[in-house]
Amino acid sequence: MGEQALEKLRECIPLFQALSDTCRQDIILLLTKNDTLTVNEITSKLTLSRPAVSHHLKILREQGILKMEQQGTQRYYSLAFEDAIDQLKQLIITVEDRCY
């Protein structure tokens, strides 16, 4: 594997780690069925505590998978895959160019 391809792969590791957790996958699936949800709404649909849900939401936001909008005292979470998809596309393009 070329140096650039390896570098792109390493850049994607945090994204892969974020997506590999089943609790975070459950949150993503919930948000595919609902445009936006609050932490309390997500917590009510899962078997996780509110602090655990907040922790997972933070990781998903850091990886560009979710976005958060503040409205008054409520924080609404929704999917925002664009940055993550762009990162994965760059990995695929680089691997194709450097390895095949």
Topology (elements, then pairings):
Elements: H1 3-20, H2 22-33, H3 39-45, H4 50-62, E1 66-71, E2 74-79, H5 82-99
Antiparallel strand pairs: 1-2
Helix pairs in contact: 1-5, 3-4
Evaluate the radius of gyration: 16 Å
Using the alpha-carbon principal axes, give the shape: elongated
Major sheet: order of its strands?
Answer: 1-2
Content-based structural category: alpha+beta
Distance between the termini: 9 Å
What would the average pLDDT be, to the nearest integer?
Answer: 94
Largest sheet: 2 strands, antiparallel
Number of helices: 5
Q: Can you give the helix content as a percent range?
A: 55-70%
Number of E strands: 2
Uncertain segments: none
Helix and strand element order: HHHHEEH
DSSP strand (E) fraction? 5-15%
Summary tags:
two-stranded antiparallel ribbon; single chain; 100 residues; alpha+beta
Brief summary of the model shown:
By secondary structure, the protein is of the alpha+beta class. It is 68% helix and 12% strand. The protein has five helices and two strands.
Provide structural commentary.
The chain has five helices and two strands; from the N terminus they run H-H-H-H-E-E-H. The chain is of the alpha+beta class. Strands 1-2 form a two-stranded antiparallel sheet. Helix 1 (3-20) runs antiparallel to helix 5 and helix 3 packs across helix 4 (50-62). The longest helix is centred in the first third of the chain and has 18 residues, at 3-20.
